[in-house]
Amino acid sequence: MRARKRRDISFNNGRARRTAIELLATGTSPNLPVEKRQARLISLAAAVTKLDAISSAPIDADPFLRWAIHDQAVILASLYRAVILLANQDHYAARNALLPAAALMHKQTGRWATWYHGDSKIDIAGLIARCEQRAHIG
Predict the structure, then answer these.
(1) What Rg value do the Cα atoms of the chain yield, rounded?
(2) How far is C-alpha 108 from the geometric centre of its chain's CA atoms?
(3) Residue 2, domain member (yes or no)
(4) Within a domain: 117
(5) Element (DSSP H or E) covering residue 39
(6) Terminal CA-to-CA distance of the chain, rounded, Å?
(7) What share of the chain is helix, strand, coil (3-state, %, to 5)?
(8) Quick check: is 103 in a domain?
(9) Across all residues in the chain, what is the average pLDDT?
């Protein structure tokens, strides 16, 4: 029997959200040794660079491509950037990193106008509120 290749899918949007919540609650990600935590942050920083390149590239006017490629890249880059900043306990900057994703979710049109309505998987609004509490904003 052939061995299956293991894929690292630990930083999809749901896992990144849970890590952000852990960091907001405890200031650390308790389930990871320091070396793995640092390696994960380096990996996230590389992913943010790639996602920023994707979101800044010219895109076809096709609404689906804009949504599926550009908008998703912006949302993930915002979320990953916030996790990196939360790992450094910079709550104010993490809040600001999440704002582009929140703005993008609110401006969806056409078929995707209500796609993020009641967003509970990533819960960008909730993460922003928690960052604001920790940063003593508002």
Answers:
(1) 16
(2) 18
(3) no
(4) yes
(5) helix 34-56
(6) 58
(7) 65, 0, 35
(8) yes
(9) 81
Beta-carbon contacts of residue 46 (< 8 Å; ≥ 6 apart): none
HSE of 134 in the Cβ direction (CA atoms, 13 Å)? 24
Q: What is the pLDDT of residues 97-130, one digit of tens each?
A: 999 999 988 877 777 677 777 676 788 999 999 9
What residues contact 78, with CB distance under 8 A and at least 6 apart?
97, 98, 99, 100, 101, 124
Domain range for 125 is 13-135
**4 three-class SS:** coil
User: What distance in Å separates the CA atoms of residue 86 and residue 56, rounded to the nearest whole number?
Assistant: 24
- In total, how many domains does the chain have? 1
Query: Does a structural domain hold residue 1?
Result: no
Cβ-Cβ contacts under 8 Å for 43 (sequence gap 6 or more): 11
The residue among 42, 48, 40, 96 whose CA lies nearest residue 74 is 48
**DSSP class per residue in 116-128:** TTT--SS-HHHHH
